[in-house]
Amino acid sequence: MPAFTLPGLEAFRRAGENPHYRWGSVTAEAGEHGVGGRCFLPTLFPKFKISKSEPAFAIGSCFAQEVQMALVGQGFSFVSIIADAPVEDYFMQDVDDTWRHFWPLHFFHRYNVPSMLHEVRRLLRDDSPLNGDALLFPNKRQEITDFHYHSHFPLATISQAIERRRFIRKRLLGLKNCRMMVITLGLTEAWLDQESNLYLNITPTYWMVEENPERFVFVVLDACEIREGLEALITEVRSCAPAMKFVITVSPIPLEGTFAPNDIVVSTNHSKASLITAAREIAYSDPDVDYFPSYEMVFMSARDNVWTEDQRHVRPEFVEQIMQHFSHSYIE
């Protein structure tokens, strides 16, 4: 089944209205905003307009937090930011200066689509097992690690971890009042807990797998599974916020490591290709879902203007540039 179709004459008409329908129009000769320039800015065709005055929600990988913070700087309000979390009660790890501007947002990084779906269902359904002790595991120091969130923040007891989940759920239920949801896709590699039939948000420790060799399974999700997960997530959100507009992006940040039998670059490209395919196909078919090409903007711009020294993370000032491009097109 085709991802998208148009009647013949309509296809020619739209191509004629597209200033960048040929490759030659976007090469470096087009200036700093062409391919290879300082900041590639593609032509956008937004399906809808959004208002800064209406609350928004972001979910996704670490790049999602960069996007969220850039939009906050432009005047948006995100209910998915919990800036005043009681650190002493819920977060035990010190934060170095590199991550301090994210605090405590990096606890909420969500790396794979099934885990995003789990979180939305946890927020909206009282009977979700993740409102209990599912995916809570002791580490070697017998602290409790929450593999539905992030392993960097262990707590002393299961009851504390469940109470933290209650706190987060209460704060994030503002999702019901939002009008825009930004979903940033990060990985296709994931780990399934076969006992609970839930996907972990992060990789289990070697010690956990060694202790439970039949329990945890590594999977590489295909584009069809990703699309089905995204469609289920969108349906879930619409059950409480029927007017929600969805903007899907794909994180340009490469995988940190891979469990697939590939070079890390090959696994990264496979992952991003699958995520883009799923996101684009949903955006083609749903009038209230749009794809924002942040991934393409990063990789078609001059590397020295994009990447930090580790050649893996995007400079915050570059994220601000591309999100200004988003705002110029989408804000009513």
Description:
With 332 residues, this protein is α/β, with parallel strands linked by helices. It has one domain (45-330): Rossmann fold. It has helices at 8-17, 62-73, 87-90, 113-124, 158-172, 206-211, 223-238, 264-285, 294-299, 303-306, 316-330, and strands spanning 56-60, 136-138, 144-146, 180-185, 189-193, 198-200, 216-220, 245-250, 289-291. β5 and β6 (198-200) form a beta hairpin.
Total individual domains: 1
String of helices and strands: HEHHHEEHEEEHEHEHEHHH
- How many helix segments? 11
The CATH class is Alpha Beta
Structure described in brief:
The chain is α/β, with parallel strands linked by helices and 332 residues long. The chain has 11 helices and 9 strands. It is 37% helix and 12% strand.
Give structural attributes.
332 residues, 37% helix, 12% strand, alpha/beta, single chain, globular, 4-stranded parallel β-sheet
